[in-house]
Specification:
5 helices, single chain, 2,3-Dihydroxybiphenyl 1,2-Dioxygenase, domain 1, alpha+beta, eight-stranded mixed beta sheet, seven-stranded mixed beta sheet
């Protein structure tokens, strides 16, 4: 399936939040704490917590139906959604549908924001969110936790860098087409790389603030389990070695650098609860991101 080119350049401003669905919120929350995140708010009506550090917002959805529809019936933690901040969510949503994106039905309850979204890979969701009303999404849908600070300092300068997306064999062109038409991403020149994986295709957002990396199954892996969807987030840090040292002191362990290449470029945590991993990428945050 191709996606149509529609008049008007899509505009995006950055990543607003990522959402994990989990059946083990306590254990996953402990992993986030070790990564430097702090819980700051709870959802008004659901078993959902907002964690934050710096400009990185992570929503942990432990609602009883959070993992419904997962292909892996034993999944415990799934990176379920990516919310992209745009100047006007209505305009961006209509543009996405005109390009051929498939809409996600709203699950907003009373007194909650109705956030438009479209389907991404493997059942994942791409939400489109703006700040035009002068009131943030978090102020409407969430209640602050007692004595919580919303301005949580970023550990080792961590900030959103991007998302690693696992796709099916031969689907790179399809997803490149999707993100280019629907959201205005552009492929990086051949040979330009970030982080720990030399394979795959990388696209940059129109705002230049974050990246997507598409990974197809390796050759000869036809019989291996390969789950299409968002796999992990990449967190940019100005000094990878310093960030690794600080996180290791907090109980986070990393894949041996000799298995991944240059540690100065990036690092990958060992598997955490539910198979989750976080990637560190050498990257200085831009002033306007």
């Amino acid at each position: 399936m191709g996606f149509e080119a529609v008049g008007g350049e899509p505009e995006i401003e950055g990543i607003e939040f990522v959402e994990y669905a989990t059946s083990r919120p306590k254990e996953f929350g402990a992993a986030l704490l070790a990564m430097g995140f702090q819980p700051v708010a709870k959802h008004r009506s659901r078993h959902v917590l907002l964690y934050r550090q710096g400009d990185v917002n992570v929503i942990v959805n432990a609602d009883e139906r959070a993992l419904d529809g997962e292909a892996d019936a034993e999944a415990e933690v799934v990176l379920k959604a990516l919310a992209i901040r745009v100047p006007d969510a209505g305009v961006a949503y209509r543009h996405a549908l005109a390009c051929g994106a498939q809409p996600v039905s709203s699950q907003a309850g009373p007194m909650e924001l109705n956030i438009p979204g479209v389907h991404g890979p493997g059942g994942a969701v791409l939400f489109l969110l703006d700040r035009r009303a002068g009131v943030s999404f978090y102020e409407v849908d969430f209640l602050p936790l007692p004595e919580a600070r919303f301005d949580v300092p970023a550990l080792a300068g961590m900030h959103f860098f991007g998302i690693v997306q696992y796709i099916l064999a031969g689907d790179t062109a399809r997803w490149c087409n999707f993100y280019e038409r629907v959201l205005g991403f552009t492929p990086l020149p051949e040979g330009m790389r970030f982080g720990v994986l030399p394979s795959g295709t990388i696209m940059r957002s129109a705002c230049g603030c974050f990246f997507l990396q598409f990974i197809e199954p390796p050759a000869g892996a036809e019989d291996a389990h390969w789950q299409e969807g968002f796999n992990r987030i990449g967190l940019g840090v100005p000094d990878v070695e310093k960030a690794v040292t600080e996180l290791e002191s907090r109980g986070i362990h990393f894949v041996d650098a000799s298995l991944l290449g240059n540690r100065e470029m990036g690092a990958l945590t060992r598997t955490l609860v539910g198979g989750t991993q976080f990637e560190l990428v050498h990257h200085a945050q831009l002033d306007d991101c």
